[in-house]
Amino acid sequence: MTGKAKPKKHTAKEIAAKVDAATTNRGGGKAGMADRTGQEKGGHAKLECPFCKITAPDLKSMQIHHEARHPKQPFDESKLINLHAGYAAETSKPRPGVRGSFKK
User: Is 0.85 surpassed by the pTM of this model?
Assistant: First the structure.
């Protein structure tokens, strides 16, 4: 005869990981499009390339982009467009990467 079959139980670590994945805004999908494009103050993209209009979150990323895509033109920090400069902070909207869920 075989032994008793024990149902496999989920560990606390596994359950906590699932809750974290479900309740943390990672900025993906259609809901995160505004975050990624920098259309609002809380968006990931802060700087915009003056030549090709691509966005980057920080100066170092923009410098890497510029060296790769526009090697013939000199990199000038003052020509970059700051997308966050023209928008006022809105505290009621959730920001990307902030823990919390609307479906609790």
Answer: no
